[in-house]
């Protein structure tokens, strides 16, 4: 018999399909994910909802399970930090920020990681939600940069930024590449640097 103990990964790999959350706030969660990432319910019942924003039957499942308990110190315990959604370009990404800000939905953390510019929101259960765009516009190139770049190796978290300063820069006529370069240079740092931890909501 062939020894396959050292076969660390499958030859034919599955693709990521969905994430499931147990929730005490089903309707609020449905409303949040529809607002932030355009996820619409394929089915929304009393005990759960299955949401998608593309051709998949669902990308996020929400289960209102019986006897759930509220988490303790959720923002500072091991576990899932965030899920992420990606826009195709800078302008769609920043337009989404402005749309959400007008509704009072604002990110708690904003980082230019080099290969992405990312805003982190928090859903009604305290889970992180990243809205990003790939600054290379090509996953092969951004993956190569992450793998080979000394810059990423030395600072994988990236540079903090204030999204309102990005809006001002765009309104002043700067193109997105210059805004990205200036963000990486630390020109749009917020007055107060936030924690990378998820804020504790419970």
From TrEMBL:
SUPFAM superfamilies: Glyoxalase/Bleomycin resistance protein/Dihydroxybiphenyl dioxygenase. InterPro entries: Glyas_Bleomycin-R_OHBP_Dase, Glyas_Fos-R_dOase_dom, GlyoxalaseI/FosfomycinResist, VOC_core. Residues 15-134 form the VOC domain. This is VOC domain-containing protein. It comes from Agromyces salentinus. The lineage of its organism: Bacteria, Bacillati, Actinomycetota, Actinomycetes, Micrococcales.
């Amino acid at each position: 018999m062939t020894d396959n103990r050292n076969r660390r990964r499958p030859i034919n790999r599955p693709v990521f399909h969905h994430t499931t959350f147990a929730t005490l706030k089903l309707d609020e969660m449905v409303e949040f994910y529809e607002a932030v990432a355009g996820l619409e319910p394929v089915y929304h019942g009393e005990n759960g909802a299955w949401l998608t924003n593309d051709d998949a039957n669902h990308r996020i499942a929400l289960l209102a399970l019986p006897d759930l308990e509220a988490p303790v110190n959720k923002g500072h315990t091991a576990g899932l930090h965030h899920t992420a959604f990606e826009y195709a370009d800078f302008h769609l990404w920043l337009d989404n920020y402005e749309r959400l800000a007008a509704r009072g939905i604002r990110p708690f953390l904003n980082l230019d990681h080099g290969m992405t510019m990312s805003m982190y929101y928090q859903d009604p259960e305290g889970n992180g939600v990243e809205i990003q765009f790939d600054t290379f516009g090509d996953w092969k190139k951004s993956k190569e940069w992450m793998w080979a770049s000394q810059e990423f190796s030395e600072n994988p978290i990236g540079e903090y930024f204030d999204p309102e300063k990005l809006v001002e820069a765009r309104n002043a006529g700067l193109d997105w590449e210059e805004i990205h370069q200036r963000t990486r240079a630390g020109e749009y740092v917020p007055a107060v640097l936030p924690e990378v931890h998820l804020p504790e909501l419970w």
